[in-house]
Predict the 3D structure of the following.
Amino acid sequence: MADFLTSFRVTASGLAAQRLRLNIIAENVANAQTTRTAEGGPYKRKDPVFAAKPFNEMLSREAVAGATGVSVERVHVDERPDRMQYDPSHPDANKDGYVAMPNIDMVTEMVNMMSASRSYESNVSVLNASKAMALKALEIGR
C-alpha cells in the first residue's frame, strides 16, 4: 500500500504544480494591458520554475520510497524589455507618445495554458489508474 501512497503523493504534487502554472498564466493574461504596478512600470510576465529528481535517481528503490515528485523552485519574473506602443492619449505615455506595455505574448500564454491543462489531465489519469490498481489489489486480498 505504501507504493500506492507514493504514487498518489507524486501525482498530487504534479497536480498542484500544474494548477499553480495555470494560475500564473491566468495572471499574465489578466495583466496583459496593465501599464502601472505597485513596483512601478508595466506588469512583468511570470513563469514557474519546477524542480524534480533526475530520472536515474528515481529508479532506485530508496529514491522511489522517499519520492516527493515535482516542486515549484521559484517564480521567474521575465526581464525582457517592455513592448513600446504608440498611444499619445494614454495617461502613461512618455513625451514621444509611447506607452511601455507588458512583455506578454498572448500566443505564448495560450500555448502554455494548453500544455499545462494537458499535463494536469495526464496527472488526473495517473491518479485514477493508481486508484483503480489499489482497489483491485484490495479485491485480491478478499
Notes: Helices lie at 2-30, 55-58, 61-65, 106-140. The chain has one domain: 2-78+114-140. The beta strands are 46-51, 71-77, 83-86, 98-101. Residues 2-78+114-140 form one domain.
